């Protein structure tokens, strides 16, 4: 639950999230039927774009809100715990759905070989436009949405759900496009196109570039960033 007085994020990272279960493997496992393969301890982490991009932005000091859907089950509780270890407030935008299964991946990663994923999409398949509510987007300048191809509700029926539009709006727009615009002279940019997000992205990138171009100071990590400590240690070794 997002508190009414919660600080606004710069970025909302929404969409696919899962619990990554990564066992330690000494060698490529023999996965023949009937075999038993001894492995090491398992690392647990938040995966998918919400887990990977969202937590990476948080480590970089970017104000971020995570919006993903999980089940009210054991894996869901573990995933929330992984997120809260970074910052308890990061879990406030998560949706917990009773009766659904939390998405998870078993990551098979033997030394020297590419990874293989055994993946259960779980609650990601029922995530829809209504789950990215106005309250969850409040104050953000950037929405990063990831992994629609493994989120069934988003691509079902051609993907006709729209944030902030009434039920059936997407279906009617698709019918109108096919009837009047597809492979016809009217198939061009018009006033119905919403390019406001692209404009905001360009404004943000311009401000970053302008700030870097008009200062003699080098960009610095935030004081508590783990990357700042790593850079300082590296610089000490070079002196």
End-to-end C-alpha gap: 49 Å
How would you describe the shape? globular
SSE sequence, one letter per element: EEEHEHEEEHEHHHH
Q: In total, how many domains does the architecture comprise?
A: 3
Relative strand content: 15-25%
CATH homologous superfamily name of the largest domain?
A: Ribokinase
- Structural class, from secondary structure content? alpha/beta
CATH topology of the largest domain: UDP-N-acetylmuramoyl-L-alanine:D-glutamate ligase
What does this protein look like?
32% of the residues lie in helices and 18% in strands. It is of the alpha/beta class. It folds into three domains: 9-27 and 37-159, UDP-N-acetylmuramoyl-L-alanine:D-glutamate ligase; 165-193, no CATH class; 197-239, no CATH class. It has a four-stranded parallel sheet. A four-stranded mixed sheet has the order 3-2-6-7. The mean pLDDT is 89.
Q: How is the topology of this model organized?
A:
Blueprint: E1 11-15, E2 18-23, E3 42-47, H1 48-59, E4 64-71, H2 74-86, E5 95-97, E6 104-108, E7 116-120, H3 134-137, E8 142-146, H4 152-155, H5 169-180, H6 196-213, H7 226-238
Parallel strand pairs: 1-4, 1-8, 2-6, 4-5
Antiparallel strand pairs: 2-3, 6-7
Compact description:
Helix content is 32%, strand content 18%.
Keywords:
239 residues; 3 domains; four-stranded mixed beta sheet; alpha/beta
């Amino acid at each position: 639950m997002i508190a009414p007085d919660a600080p606004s994020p710069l970025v909302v990272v929404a969409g696919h999230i899962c619990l990554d279960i990564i066992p330690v493997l000494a060698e490529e496992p023999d996965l023949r039927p009937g075999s038993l393969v001894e492995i090491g301890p398992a690392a647990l982490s938040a995966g998918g774009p919400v887990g990977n991009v969202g937590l990476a932005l948080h480590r970089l000091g970017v104000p971020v809100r995570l919006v993903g859907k999980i089940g009210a089950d054991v894996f869901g509780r573990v995933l929330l715990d992984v997120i809260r270890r970074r910052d308890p407030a990061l879990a406030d935008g998560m949706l917990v759905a009773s009766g659904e299964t939390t998405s998870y991946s078993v990551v098979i990663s033997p030394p020297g070989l590419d990874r293989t994923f055994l993946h259960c999409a779980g609650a990601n398949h029922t995530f829809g436009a209504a789950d990215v509510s106005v309250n969850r987007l409040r104050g953000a300048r950037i929405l990063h949405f990831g992994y629609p191809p493994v989120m069934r509700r988003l691509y079902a029926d051609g993907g006709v759900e729209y944030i902030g539009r009434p039920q059936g709006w997407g279906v009617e727009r698709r019918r109108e496009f096919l009837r009047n615009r597809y492979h016809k002279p009217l198939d061009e940019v018009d006033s119905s196109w919403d390019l406001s997000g692209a404009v905001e992205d360009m404004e943000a990138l311009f401000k970053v570039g302008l700030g870097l171009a008009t200062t003699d100071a080098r960009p610095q990590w935030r004081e508590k960033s783990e990357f700042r400590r790593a850079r300082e240690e590296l610089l000490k070794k070079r002196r």
